[in-house]
Amino acid sequence: MKSNIATAANQRRFKGRQPASTTRRKKTATTRRSANALTRTGFDMGYMITVIVLVVTGLIMVFSASYPSAYYQYGNGFYFIQKQAQWAILGVFAMFFTANFDYHRYAKLAPLLLVGSMVLLLAVPFIGVEVKGARRWLGVGSFTIQPSEITKIALILFFAYGLSRSKDKIKKFSELLKYWAILGVTFGLLLLQPHFSACIIIGLTGVIMLLVGGARIRHFAYAAVPVIAGGVALVIMEPYRLQRLTAFLDPFQDKLGSGWQIIQSLYAIGSGGLFGLGFGNSRQKFMYVSEPQNDFIFAIICEELGLIGALVVLALFLILIWRGIKIAIAAPDTFGSLIVVGITALVGVQVVLNIAVVTSSIPTTGIPLPFFSAGGSALVFLMAAMGIVLNVSRYKKASP
Fold this sequence. Notes:
The protein is mainly α. The protein has one domain (45-394). Helix content is 70%, strand content 5%. The protein has helices spanning 2-13, 20-35, 45-74, 79-99, 106-127, 147-166, 173-191, 196-212, 217-237, 239-249, 260-272, 297-330, 334-358, 376-394, and strands at 38-40, 129-131, 134-140, 143-145, 395-397. The strands form two sheets. It has a three-stranded antiparallel sheet with strand order 2-3-4. The protein has a two-stranded antiparallel ribbon with strand order 1-5. A hairpin with a 2-residue loop joins strand 2 (129-131) and strand 3. The radius of gyration is 26 Å and the shape is globular. 41% of the residues are buried.
């Protein structure tokens, strides 16, 4: 009888307790349930259609803008469009792959991708391909890639990974310093090439991600003075950067030299009027605007398609950014949301800066217009980034 009473008492005493192995099994089951709490849906069709329209429109404008210079330089007016179309096809495959690659796996891959991209950046000054005094490419012969394009995506993934794990820690200045240190190392490697414009793009994208991730604005004020001082020093150290600054202030002061490009760009924009001169009828692309298929292609768009055509192109970018923001808001977790924020910021920053340069709103620097400027590897990695956004758009929180 006493034995039965003792047994009952022990059962009551240990009723809420369970062996450690049982607890671990329950935690594992809970983790699996939370992982399975995401359901796959279709891609965001609005985003996908906008990307396709931008790619196709970009190819059309590259053909129109590049034909005279391609014929003059290579005896083949289709030289640039053929290369751009080939890279676009590779970009479609890259987008298809990343769109079907579960973005949650980037959480483990992000540190490796960042380290790998840093190694590539470090290799560029030693074994890179030099073009017009800058060594920014790796490759053999005509096949080259820009490691800085890989670094842009790798940093976005790493920042999203770190911020989603640290949560509110980013509000501490000491935690923010870690991200600034990563950006500082990246800037140092890029300036060895030199690639000042990539520093600007990556820096602004990183700042946007950190602010969205919860960093305090007042902490960025601490870095404002040294960053501005460093930027001024970099401009003064390189004569060509100082020339670009003086050309921005008064391009007609040296209209046949440092001011030539921006003056011809403004002529192209102004002559386009409301409806443009018509597709293919640009005059400035005939060896006035240097390499019009690259950074200054927006000027040719304005000249041939006019204000209306330029506004249509801007509307496409606004739709892409708007859809990206919607995907970020609807993302099932912080990691996915921050990835989309970073990629959307990357596109938005480049669009704003490129148009600002072309319209002489800021000093000239080599910033391409996404989907439009001719540049093979840049298009491939950009479309791969679009695929990542599409993949995030597929996942939704399962209804209870």
